[in-house]
Amino acid sequence: MGEVRYGLLMKFLHFANNESSSDLDHNMKLKKIREFHNLVVHKFKSVYVPKPDISVDESLIAYKGRLSWKQYIPQKRARFGIKLFQLCKSESGYIWNSLIYTGKGTAFNENYNDYGFSTKSVLTLIHELKGKG
Questions:
Q1: Which of 45, 47, 90, 103: disulfide with 69, CB 3.0–4.6 Å?
Q2: CB–CB of 88/57 below 8 Å?
Q3: Which of 84, 104, 85, 105 is nearest to 31 (CA)?
Q4: For residue 130, what are the contacts with CB-CB under 8 A and spacing of at least 6?
Q5: Quick count: other Cβ atoms within 10 Å of Cβ 100?
């Protein structure tokens, strides 16, 4: 594929319809990719049921563009980017659940609003696994 063709594909690749999206979305920062992210996470969950050995990890997707919720983590190789919290299988690293951090507007589970940031992120990721062994 040539550079021009690749540029055209990237220019016209959209995951959301601009005309039909509502402005009442509670997290405007992710409105363009929310449906796609939810679809991918749903597929991850349908393929694999995690065993007792799981871990929650913080990941950083390298990004150097302009973004209001871009994070700086000096310990990571790519220091600037988009921060994700992921629930993974300990042995293989298979991602079972994922949460994109967008600052104050991060979509945590409402049941955990009384907890601190770290606790909220972990409890939101493992919410569906509670009581399953």
A1: 103
A2: yes
A3: 105
A4: none
A5: 19
In the chain, the amino acid numbered 60 is L
The per-residue pLDDT for 27 is: 64
For residues 45 and 97, is the Cβ–Cβ distance under 8 A?
A: yes
- Label residue 33 exposed, middle or buried (CB < 10 Å: 0-12, 13-18, 19+): middle
The two structure tokens encoding residue 51? 């065993």
Q: Which helix (H) or strand (E) holds 71?
A: strand 71-72
Q: How far apart are CA 78 and CA 92, in angstroms?
A: 22
Give the pLDDT confidence score for residue 64 in this predicted structure: 84
Instruction: Give the integer Cα–Cα distance in Å for 123 and 109.
Output: 8
- Residue 36 DSSP one-character state: H
10-residue mean pLDDT profile of the chain (133 residues): values are 87 76 64 86 91 90 86 85 92 92 85 90 91 72
Give how far Cα 129 sits from Cα of 64, 105, 114, 118, Å.
Answer: 35, 24, 20, 18
Strands 80-89 and 54-62: antiparallel
pTM: 0.79
Both tokens of residue 92?
Answer: 């293989």
